[in-house]
């Protein structure tokens, strides 16, 4: 089983080395680092590793949230990847063994989408009061997956997809993570949560409350799109007169499309 890891990387020069070590320890045979829009030495740090089992794809411009996943996944698929692990370049927490088990069990059980639970058992009141958690819970329940995956989502935490999932999924879906989950269930693919890593142990970079608010708004909009997909409606990020854009408008689908055209030549 040829396992690839895709690591989006932007301005993570002090962290990218640890992220690469983590996925290598977990069992990734090939690593794709998608460096985009970096203003620090991230690209130089990655190239300095001189790893024959690592491919660096670089963009001068930022691709936006989650678009690097789609870029890396498309490349990995063309290279024959059987499974692809998505792992953010800023993660430096102590969870290597959980990551290794996530990969091993995904292959062992033949899953098409395996997720990481970063929430644990959330109190019902917490879910009711939090619009993001409420939408996430609602989506997972409508998909018939909540008893198995709880609040898990490909929006949050390391996760793995199979070649079978990548074969037919629209590339843009990979840049809007909840669409991946909805698509997998609609196509009757095998989905489960195999790892449990509290958010605090992911070791992601702290970027302040303004960034957190925009991320939250981005994910809410993504979840609204997934609900629309599931219900067969035209996708929208609007709910009760409010548009949930967040970082969505910064996603460079045009650069993704250009990359895919070049990859197909």
Describe this structure as you would to a colleague.
- This is Glycosyltransferase 2-like domain-containing protein.
- It comes from Tumebacillus avium.
- Pfam families: Glycos_transf_2 (PF00535).
- The strands form two sheets. The chain has a seven-stranded mixed beta sheet with strand order 3-2-1-4-6-5-7, with helices on both faces.
- With 265 residues, it is of the alpha/beta class.
- The protein has one domain: Spore Coat Polysaccharide Biosynthesis Protein SpsA, Chain A, CATH 3.90.550.
- Helix 1 crosses helix 4, helix 6 runs parallel beside helix 11 and helix 9 runs parallel beside helix 11.
- The longest helix has 23 residues.
- The chain is built from twelve helices and nine strands.
- Strand 8 and strand 9 form a beta hairpin.
- The radius of gyration is 17 Å and the shape is globular.
Count of discrete domains: 1
Helix fraction? 40-55%
Shape: globular
CATH superfamily: Spore Coat Polysaccharide Biosynthesis Protein SpsA, Chain A
User: Which spans have pLDDT < 50 for at least 5 consecutive residues?
Assistant: none
Oligomer: single chain
Strand count, sense and barrel status of the largest sheet are: 7 strands, mixed
Structural class: alpha/beta
- Count of individual beta strands: 9
In short:
InterPro entries: Glyco_trans_2-like (IPR001173), Nucleotide-diphossugar_trans (IPR029044). With 265 residues, the protein is α/β, with parallel strands linked by helices. The chain has helices at 16-26, 42-48, 67-78, 96-109, 124-129, 131-142, 146-149, 163-168, 177-186, 199-202, 209-231, 253-264; strands at residues 3-9, 30-36, 54-59, 83-86, 113-117, 159-162, 191-196, 238-239, 242-243.
